Amino acid sequence: MTASEDGRRVVLRNRKARHEYEILDTFEAGLVLRGAEVKSLRDGSASFTDAFARIEDGEAWLYNLHITPWESATVDAPDPKRTRKLLLHGHEIDKLAAATQQKGLTLVPLDLYFRRGHAKVTLALAKGKKLHDKRETLRREAMRREAERAMEKYRG
Asked: I want to staple 87 with a disulfide (CB 3.0 to 4.6 A). Which of 30, 64, 68, 77 is the partner?
């Protein structure tokens, strides 16, 4: 976990999201958790593999976020991959619902963090990349790194 200057303690990042999707817009959402799930998250025991969000009946839900049950919990732990409710403003939900009705747009979690003791998720309104787009992104990133190395070599 890392702490940033705005009080965020990042627990989990979805590294594949920026490679697989073109990020159009981001939103911060609260995450409704039960009991020992908070302790598990603080330990960093979670995974975004195949996680996505969906708007249903005017509410936002996060699917397939795997939170490993906390080993010291005495009460029965909830299902690790249960659907979790996301807390967003009504106008944000309306905007996301309208946007996801468009072809090819989806809601992808980018990172999970704690801010002032509350679990938050950064959701991205994203469009899936085609294979040639992914290759182009990798090519541009490699060229950028090469240029930085050349500048460092020239300076130093």
From this structure: 30
Average of pLDDT values for 85-96? 93
Q: Please, what CATH class does the domain formed by 2-129 belong to?
A: mainly beta
- Contact between 94 and 82 under an 8 Å Cβ cutoff? The reply is no
Q: Hey, which residues does 30 pair with through a beta bridge?
A: 87, 120
Instruction: Kindly give the residue spans of alpha helices, DSSP state H, lying in the chain.
Output: 17-20, 37-42, 90-101, 131-155
Identity at 47, one-letter amino acid code = S
Quick one: three-class SS letters along 73-109?
CCCCCCCCCCCEEEECCHHHHHHHHHHHHCCCEEEEE
Place of tokens 């200057």: 5
CA contacts within 13 A on the Cβ side of 100 = 19
Q: Give the C-alpha separation, 150 to 125, whole Å.
A: 35
Token reading at 50: 């195949």
Residue-wise pLDDT tens digits, 34-49: 888 888 888 888 888 8
- Token pair 């979690």 is found at 109
